């Protein structure tokens, strides 16, 4: 394991940024500027703290050593024609930070600082919620339309307030018969009263 005394890195100008989504693969690369075989490595810095060595290797050998808990399955380092690469597989928010390429000589040379910004997962639930609301709106609208139609139909086919006062509607023939019967009875009663009350009737007795 390589032990170096490192100091926090301060950049005179903002380094370039790379924005990634969770699950993306990101690859950084730099060029070995020492021109001689030696140790090279990749470093990560969080919030201005001391850079941590991710992985290192001797430029003329294929063996790579990972440090500080970084896993080779997640961060892979390799060299091709003096180009030094670091590939991060399926990034997440914890991978956000500043990445440096380092060459070890009499001192450490940091080059190619790059800021990695992995966007948070809050965007995914927001999109899901908007999709659910959009899909539910037509259903709610249809339910409201059906309810309005049902209420309107019930109102139009409802019983008239006059119907309750008049009682049940009877057959027309029955009504005509009742009217004739009532008229006949009324005439008989009038004739009977005329016979009982007529003062011009003269009664004669026969012996």
What does this structure look like?
With 207 residues, this protein is an alpha+beta fold. Helices cover 32% and strands 28% of the residues. It is built from 3 helices and 9 strands, in the order βββββββββααα. It has helices at residues 123-156, 161-166, 172-197; strands at residues 17-20, 26-31, 39-45, 52-58, 64-66, 75-80, 83-88, 97-104, 108-118. The strands form 2 sheets. It has a 6-stranded mixed β-sheet with strand order 1-9-8-3-4-5, with no helix packed on it. β6 (75-80) and β7 (83-88) form a beta hairpin. The longest helix is centred in the last third of the chain and has 34 residues, at 123-156.
- Mean residue pLDDT: 76
Distinct helical segment count:
3
Name the quaternary structure.
single chain
Sequence of secondary-structure elements: EEEEEEEEEHHH
Looking at the structure, what is the overall shape? rod-shaped
Task: Offer a concise description of the structure.
This protein has about 210 residues and is an alpha+beta fold. Helix content is about 30%, strand content about 30%.
Keywords, please?
9 strands; Ig-like domain-containing protein; alpha+beta; 207 residues; three-stranded antiparallel sheet
Topology:
Blueprint: E1 17-20, E2 26-31, E3 39-45, E4 52-58, E5 64-66, E6 75-80, E7 83-88, E8 97-104, E9 108-118, H1 123-156, H2 161-166, H3 172-197
Parallel strand pairs: 1-9
Antiparallel strand pairs: 2-7, 3-4, 3-8, 4-5, 6-7, 8-9
């Amino acid at each position: 394991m390589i032990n170096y005394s490192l100091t926090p890195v301060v950049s005179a100008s903002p380094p370039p940024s790379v924005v990634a989504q969770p699950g993306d693969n990101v690859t950084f690369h730099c060029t070995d500027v020492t021109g001689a075989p030696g140790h090279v490595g990749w470093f990560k810095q969080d919030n201005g703290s001391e850079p941590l060595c991710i992985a290192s290797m001797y430029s003329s050998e294929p063996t790579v050593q990972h440090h500080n808990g970084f896993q080779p399955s997640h961060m892979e380092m390799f060299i091709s024609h003096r180009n030094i690469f670091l590939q991060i597989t399926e990034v997440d928010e914890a991978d956000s930070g500043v990445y440096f390429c380092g060459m070890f000589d009499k001192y450490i040379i940091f080059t190619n600082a790059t800021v990695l910004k992995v966007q948070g997962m809050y965007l995914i639930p927001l999109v899901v919620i908007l999709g659910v609301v959009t899909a539910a709106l037509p259903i709610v609208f249809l339910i409201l339309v059906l309810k309005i139609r049902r209420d309107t139909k019930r109102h139009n086919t409802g019983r008239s307030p006059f119907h309750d006062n008049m009682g049940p509607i009877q057959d027309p023939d029955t009504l005509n018969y009742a009217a004739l019967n009532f008229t006949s009875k009324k005439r008989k009663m009038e004739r009977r009263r005329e016979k009982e009350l007529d003062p011009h009737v003269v009664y004669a007795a026969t012996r």
